[in-house]
Amino acid sequence: MEREAAWELVKKYVQADGLRTHMLAVEVAMRAYAQHYAEDPDNWGLVGLLHDFDWEIHPTLEQHPLDGAPLLREHGVSEEDIRTILSHGPFGERITLRDKALYAVDELTGLVTAVTLVRPSRDIREVNVQSIKKKWKDKAFAAGVNRQDIQEGAEALGVALWEFHVPFVLEAMQASAAALSLNGNAG
Ligand SMILES: [Fe+2]
Ligand SMILES: [Fe+2]
Q1: Mean pLDDT, residues 93-107 taken together
Q2: What is the pLDDT, as a whole number, of residue 186?
Q3: pLDDT of residue 42
Q4: Average pLDDT over residues 133-162
Q5: How many other C-beta atoms are found inside a 10 Å radius of the C-beta of residue 132?
Q6: How many angstroms from the chain centroid is the CA of residue 32?
Q7: Ligand closest to the CA atom of residue 54
Q8: Nearest 10 degrees: CA dihedral of 94, 52, 41, 80?
Q9: In a 3-state reduction of DSSP, which class is residue 98?
Q10: Which of 86-110 are b and which e, b meaning 16 or more Cβ less than 10 Å from the residue's Cβ?
C-alpha cells in the first residue's frame, strides 16, 4: 500500500485530530528507526501510520487492533504488515525488529506530545530529555501513558531508554514539528 492510500484510510476511519496526529508521530518515529537499522523507512512508516486506524470503530482492547485486520486486508495491506500492526496489541507477539520498534515508540510519542502541549509555546523544539524525564516520574501527568510499556519496549528493542530511545524519538519528532502540529502557537 502506498503512503497516500494509507493516509486516506486513516482519514476515513479516524476523525479525532489528536489520534491522527498520534499516528503521524508514530510514523515519523518508525521511519527514523528504519533508517537507524538500515531498513525500509517507507514500509516501517506505513505500519506506524496505520497502527491505530480502527481505534474509533473498535474502541476497546478486546477489539483493537485485532478486528481491524479484515479491513486492512480488504484495502490491500500485506499480511506481514498486518501482522506487525496486530503485534502492538495486548495479545500481540512481537517477533521482528519492526514489531519491537512499533511497540517501543507507540506510547512514547504520546508522552512527548503531552509534554509539548503543556508548555506555553506548544513547541516541541523547546522540549528536552530532562523535561520528559520529569513528567515521566509524575505519575499523575498523562496518566494514560503506560511507562512500563515504553520501558519494556525499549528493552525488547535493545536500546537504552534514557541514553538512546527517548532522545532518538524526540529528535525525530522535532524534525517533523510542523507536520505534527507541534511547532508552536505562532506556526
Ligand atoms: Fe493501538
Ligand atoms: Fe498507538
Answers
A1: 98
A2: 57
A3: 98
A4: 97
A5: 20
A6: 12
A7: 1
A8: 50
A9: helix
A10: bbbbeebebeebbbbbbbbbbbbbb
Cell of 90: 495486548
End-to-end CA distance of the chain, in Å?
Answer: 32
Helix and strand numbers (H, E) in the chain are 9, 0
Max distance between CA atoms of the chain, in angstroms, equals: 44
Question: What's the rounded Cα separation, in Å, for the pair 110 and 2?
Answer: 25
- Ligand 2 centre from 147 Cα, in Å? 14
Q: 55: CA distance to ligand 1 center in Å?
A: 7
Under the banding of pLDDT at 50, 70 and 90, the label for residue 127 is very high
Compute the distance between CA of residue 51 and CA of residue 49 in angstroms, rounded to an integer: 6
| Reported pTM | 0.97
Statement: residue 185 has pLDDT above 90: no
- State residue 6's pLDDT score: 98
Q: What is the pLDDT of residue 67?
A: 97
**Any idea where the domains of the chain sit in the sequence?**
3-175
Q: Please, what CATH class does the domain formed by 3-175 belong to?
A: mainly alpha
Grid coordinates of 26: 508514530
The rounded Å distance from CA 143 to ligand 1 centre is 16
